[in-house]
Amino acid sequence: MVNPASGQWYDRSGRPIPAADAQRLLATPGYDRVRCVTVLDMGDLDWIRDVATVWLGMDLAGESHVPMIFETAVFDRDHELLESRRHATEADAVAVHERLVAAACAEAIDPVVLDTLSSP
User: Fold this and answer.
1) CA 80 → CA 19, 22, 70, 85, 98, distances in Å?
2) pLDDT (tens digit, 9 = 90+) per residue, 15-55?
3) How many C-beta atoms lie closer than 10 Å to residue 68's C-beta?
């Protein structure tokens, strides 16, 4: 795993940036949040899926030739991680996010989608 203190940082467009710029971006409210959706099931009120996509800013996996600087994760109602995927670009991250939201809707009996955050 890459040490965040010494690794290469990237902005949301994928351009390499200095650590000082990354700190500034991380301090900017909402910059790291790409999408966040909650899917509720009106047919089973105990069933919930949260799908969140965020900018990591650094390729923490470090195994790819292309920096994977975004992550999409799906959580259940108890905040247990069900699935996680990393992405190189924001466009790919958003596309996978939408597919995972659609999959959660298909899993629910009577889905209701709450878009709790959209990209700034």
Assistant:
1) 31, 29, 20, 15, 20
2) 999 999 999 999 999 999 999 999 999 999 999 999 999 99
3) 21
